[in-house]
Amino acid sequence: MTTQIHRLKNGFRIVTEHMPGLASASVGIWVGAGARHEAQNQNGIAHFLEHMAFKGTERRNALQIAEAIEDVGGYINAYTSREVTAYYARVLETDVPLAVDVIADILLNPILDRNEIEVERGVILQEIGQALDTPDDVIFDWLQEKAYPGQPLGRTILGPSERVSAFDREDLSRFISQYYRPDQLILSAAGAVDHDVIVKLAEKLFGHMQPSLLSSADKAYFLGGEVRHSKKLEQAHFALAFESPGYKHDDIYTAQIYASMLGGGMSSRLFQEIREKKGLCYSIFAQSGAYSDTGMTTVYAGTSAEQVSDLATITVDEIKRAADDLNEAEVARARVQMKAGLLMGLESPSNRAERLARLIQIWDRVPELSETVGRIDSVKAADVRIYAEKIASSSPMALALYGPIDQAPTFDQLQERRAA
What we know:
Blueprint: E1 2-7, E2 13-18, E3 24-31, H1 45-52, H2 62-70, E4 75-80, E5 85-92, H3 96-108, H4 114-132, H5 135-147, H6 161-164, H7 169-179, E6 185-191, H8 195-206, E7 225-230, E8 236-244, H9 252-263, H10 269-277, E9 284-290, E10 295-303, H11 308-325, H12 328-345, H13 349-363, H14 369-377, H15 381-393, E11 397-403, H16 411-419
Parallel strand pairs: 2-6, 7-11
Antiparallel strand pairs: 1-2, 3-5, 3-6, 4-5, 8-10, 8-11, 9-10
Helix pairs in contact: 1-7, 3-8, 9-12, 9-15, 10-11, 11-15
């Protein structure tokens, strides 16, 4: 497999990886603009624009966009995160030029028809309503908001209904002008791809664009605190977060190994203690997520109203215990799980294309896989123990509770238990 990178004169970047033996490819454009790049009065606009990209261009209407890809057996989709918006397709080898052309068309030539804006506004408002009705979705938005209060990184990706209800064509066009610039775009492709062919396509389709002089997003500060929403539900939903490293921090792999050891699988501490031994929940997990300048280690579980207090306090106890008695065998297991997940994921051209784009966005290069594996292998039990002690004692904390939570401990009570 060969990774190749090219940069056009205007700053537009192309990264490809040929995967021998495949008859298909994944190709997409990753835009360096997500929810954290929005001003407060723009919250939700990056996601709104993602929806509108498929609603028609100067060359194709909405149906023709879908038919162009599906008529050749392909698949096209998009997503918005807090730091990127991605538009991608999976097609057969011979149809890669078509996929690049369609994606370029929806990014560069959206007509933003006012009638379609109103139709899609209704769709997004329904999506917001659905998220609010899904406890194990909305609780993470509340947790994020409490971790980064009053900051772009703390706002929801979908945005509030009142803001989404007010966006007009000019708002969408303004955001495109701000962020859909060549130096913010990465074309990534993996699978049955020819690098030189894709570079020529990119030059033809994107080479005319003028670069921008964008400032970076505001630095985020994890502050923490508590949010509680009492509601008559079947389960009490519990989410706890601690400040963690960003992508470029030396401890990024230490944080991910710690989260895997704490709650990354059936052999993890939280799963064994809280589900298997105590039977307090059906599902519990921990994960470490990262952004460009910060991150969150998150624990989530759902349980009954009567058991939420035990679940919360035992979770804190296990976090403290991990700082005292984690061992090399646990860390070795977490390292292997992390490497296996990475390597298995790279068997998919879609996962590989996304990884390439994210690495280019973060590092402006694609580190060799051996470099990444080496950094994972270099994390020792002593490193994880030091990190675990920081989580157990001094890292800022955020707490979100939703459902029948009258018996749940408060933020201050959990902090006291943490400090005891």
